[in-house]
């Protein structure tokens, strides 16, 4: 299924009058609306190939219908999202779930949908049917050199697939760790992992980046070998200038101050990118902005300001890895992703409203109440009309979810693909 | 495979001399050793049928070999454990994973292994292939009366299976809840759940108990409809005198004081039983006593003291539901269970060493340092010789794990059942 | 210092034109604006007497200037707040910090500022200079009957002070608990506390309520005798129909779902009131809405809906105890309180925008994405113009903090009271 | 008050027979008992000067009697502890609470008690009466250069006092951070703090170390500028080879794996030392080993093994900063410290029992159950007789708390110093 620009424009027609009222009001209130809108138009978030199907937990999985059965159909799904919001212009593949057997064709197909290929992702947290060694006791950390080599080789193969498609970065998320005290020599696990990462790093093309993702717990329940930003940064620093830390919002201990971590990683020049989602307890992988929208705004505020300080706008080809990483257990995955992108755009727009000069002035005077007022002024502003206007200007839908529903996209996908399809992924 | 008492006695022989030294020393230090040992001998912990295979997480599952392929083989496995420790004299079935098609034969088989049938467990957190309605949005809480009825009927069927086998209790663990703000009307969800539970309760035989288990989160990530002991107790009180709260050690928010909850539930006469495991982060389902052994001791201390206060010793046919509920992702499940039972026995034995009179005296005098000394005196005592002696007297192995390994049980099971079997369960 | 209505109106003048634009836009977007504004006008939040000075932590306290030196000056401070926002029309006293020696005069003074007396608060978590027994090891839970009696008598005395002033409720927050395993017999502590509460309850006037506040930890660090809503509800149920549970937002374990607790307490008819604040880690006592504004909205959403279900609007003389309970360590306390009230009003207004019928409909259809959209539609709406309009109609300031600063209130208070005053409180 | 060796030996007499039985048994079970005992004898833990009085929380403080009124009396108190356990042979001073006006005399006094001077501690988390600038908004991070300079100068002064007394290290714990989003530019706060630390570092004598302590939260409740080990390590690396990270057990987010942090810091050569205490919720500052004794053992296990790997035994003049950092709110501070030291000794002794070769072998074979058995074998062993024997050989008490009570030390201190003394500290 393809949503042509005309279909989307037609759907917009009935919403336009109301939007114009909203937008005119917003314009009258906010300075320099056009430059904000331009930045929103430029901003793109990658969609991971594994987020297009219904996810599950260890307790159960309740699949929906019309899920993509192939890489081609996954690209088609992201194409639908991008047609609706013109902000999902990249797809992030996961190997071996999405091995492109004919990369040129895949590239052509993606280009037809206006999609680029974002970071490629390796998988050493599951065993594949044809695999010689098991990752039961870890991959890059494994005490067995042969198992480490298998995992290293897999990562190098993933890079090759990425090169074929035009990706420019590799994301390494390791489930390596331990479940019980005593199981692991933490130090040797770190050293083995470092050695393995160095071998992968050596295979990285000159213009590539490596993102080292950290996670506090799960699937290992006692220790994780890349467990927090401190460990990830240690690895990234030891690896070299192409290695960066990747922040997944759900991968922290309770109450962690993620925005501060983001700020410090930017200070060190080592923030590589994000996996966006939301959570209440752990790695819940919920829709972005559904639980802690203010935290999301605060993170974007650091990004916006950090980019200014670094003189490296993160939204203009800076190579930041932006991606949504959620697990849609009970929602239609495409609706969930549309909601996630919208929440990101809203947080980003709000962060652009922050009066940075006044904020720094308040900080300089330790005027804490004022600093809070400045942030809340931006956060409490209804920026939805700006986001909608950015979509119009980019040729997207004024209201992606409404369009998705009115145009009966899911129904059409089910009729094309069937009711009982299950996409690869978690 | 069956481990005869003779084989186990033979294995004990070589360990006896060392044990006797240990035990003689313990006997010289501890008052009334025989009564403690008698209580250890009487103490039994049920093994759930789903804990006999390798568990997994949503990220992966790394099966071991020789896992039981049928209910009969599960009983055989628990029989092996019970032969080794004479403390695992009951099995807890999970329907529909373990439907006994010929209950009489199953009862006979269990009796041959010295096993009783503990609480039966229903499953409305997964969809079965032949099921009319899905539990995607909850079972007993569902907004759809027909779905609630299906779930109620399933529970009633589970009771019937239990009756056939001689069980005396039903454990209801609900994954019902919500993943997003707005999804659920909390109150209606509670009321629907209550109504459903009442219908199940009405089908309970006169001498049965219903255990209402609570859990803070997972698989639902925003709210759980039976989320904490307060909610469970509300249900149990509204249901009636046969309804009780069941405590699973891993089902709490970070830092919860579980021993206090246990004490208060005993005060209210509503503590139904336990699911034992251990965890560092959430429902990690790790080996009992592997992370927080002191907490386990403190819980047993409340049980021991609460039983005295209630004049209802929990270990002598009181109907307490004791069960291990762990997920053995990276250990041999049978070894994990042997370690778990051992940890429980140690904590129980230590709790029996507490000088209760001196403790109450210290409390009465607000002598906090002394109260701590009294508990630590018991906890720091090496009670392993007592536990071993209890096993000898019961005809079990002095060192179950050593015996399990020396007698090559897993190797034998693999040769009988094959390397690539996967038991039902999580 | 008194802020006359004229001064405030004059200050409003310059802001009116801009406000009208905002309000006209809001009016064009939102149905039934007038009824929402009426509810905002009616809504009042009590200010606790101890929140008017700079708070501190155990590590230090950094006082500001011009803090109130007497009960009279505290009333004056709340009067200033109320003049500015017309939403702080009640003061909650804390005994013995605020013993009214001449209650009639105090009542007259409060009436001049338009203030009522909200719940009175007892203090058995500190020792007073003239006190016979120490509360080091607890008050209502104490093993010593004489100490319990002293604490009970104190509470009864607090009720008497409240009667003198026209209060209608007593809030009992107990710091009782234990710091070490073994220190407390949990059950006896509960029973002693219950007995003590019953004695206090017996002294309650016929038209009074008792609020039993719970807290997860601090100042006791191992157990709290009223530690969660389950325990508080047990007490409230055993005490009788005048006893209720009081929810303080900061008194929970990490990640607790407070809005669900609120909903269930309303279902049970046992929600007594709130202590509003915000926190990231524990009982941080930060400005309301400064950390988790969406959670605040979700709580108000339950209140708004629960009140409809109960047919008992919580904002019209229903006797709900609404109070701010924060500790202003680094902000001007009055500014902090103005920000807190504003955040509460915003959350309340947003909750009134929720399309309840559509929400219940979405729930009935398990349309989770839609339910989220409905809540977010309300939450993302900029309601500040409604709140400001409510203030205008009530004779308050359009922008309380701007007025507070422009009118140099703190400077004036310092000149009246001095730079080095320290208000009683934490 | 001084406890002579004779008094202590006399007290030992009655306990000796029982001890000998215990010790003989332990000796028969454990290899190379003498070398373990030697390491226990050598092991010393510093006592901080502020831990000798009753601590408090922001809610209240309940002082005991006979608290030290001067630095001399604090040294006397530590002398009493050291006489009793011969393991508390150092005192850690806190400036300005303990400014030594006559350092030579103080040194002489300490020497008479067998005490050395451990790390000196600066205090920029409180304002002193005579201080020009306030630390309300931070010290080393402050936006105001003059305030930073004041804090730097204070630290340099602290170093001077330390030099006078023979200390060899400075511990910098900063409460710097923020309470509200927006308050701080995280990056500038980091950079200011780094600049300030560099100035202090420049003043460090050649043979000194600087310990940079981190803390997750409190007294700041939104962000801490040295908030976790990652941040501390960043500072330490940027400062130079004399700078190290200091780990306080209570300064972590919920569920943090502290033993892994310890291992990685040792790998990096940047572990400076410890502040020992225990906690259930946050920085509860409870008696060491009173809540999570197994965690304490696991930490010591990393230390013991890490020291072997580094070939730098941490207990023989390696310059590790070992200190107890607790707050004795409801226990006699000296009893609390005796319990803490005992818990540390037990954990250390148990860690020395670990069969390291077998453990590494189990790890090499991914024998997780075996690795757990090996750790539990050590942990479940009753090592109290070894610890007691070490004390006898060092000339200390067999049972320090029994001796403290039997010899009525507190009573004597009260008679010497009075009932209503309050020691400086928290």
The name of the CATH topology of chain A is TIM Barrel
CATH superfamily of chain A: Divalent-metal-dependent TIM barrel enzymes
Protein chain pair with the most extensive contact, residues per chain = A-D, 56 and 56 residues
The largest β sheet of chain A comes out as: 6 strands, parallel
Query: What integer is the average pLDDT of chain A?
Result: 95
General shape of chain A = globular
Alpha-carbon distance between the two ends of chain A: 24 Å
Provide a short characterization of the protein structure.
Chain A has 426 residues and is of the alpha/beta class.
Describe the structure.
The structure is a homotetramer of 426-residue chains. In chain A, 49% of the residues lie in helices and 10% in strands. The longest helix of chain A has 25 residues, at 5-29. Chain A is globular, with a radius of gyration of 22 Å. By secondary structure, chain A is of the alpha/beta class. In chain A, strand 11, helix 8 (258-267) and strand 12 form a beta-alpha-beta unit. The first copy, chain A, has helices at 5-29, 33-42, 71-85, 103-112, 145-165, 186-202, 229-239, 258-267, 293-310, 333-353, 356-364, 368-380, 384-394, 400-406, 409-417; strands at residues 46-48, 56-57, 60-61, 90-92, 116-117, 120-121, 169-173, 177-178, 209-213, 223-224, 243-248, 271-276, 321-324. The model of chain A has no long low-confidence stretch (mean pLDDT 95). In chain A, helix 2 crosses helix 13, helix 3 crosses helix 10 (333-353) and helix 9 packs across helix 10 (333-353). Chain A has a single domain, classed as Divalent-metal-dependent TIM barrel enzymes (TIM Barrel), CATH 3.20.20. The first copy, chain A, is built from 15 helices and 13 strands. In chain A, the strands form 4 sheets. Chain A has a 6-stranded parallel β-sheet. Chain A has a 3-stranded parallel β-sheet with strand order 1-4-5, covered by helices on one side. A two-stranded antiparallel ribbon of chain A has the order 2-3. Chains in contact: A-B, A-C, A-D, B-C, B-D, C-D.
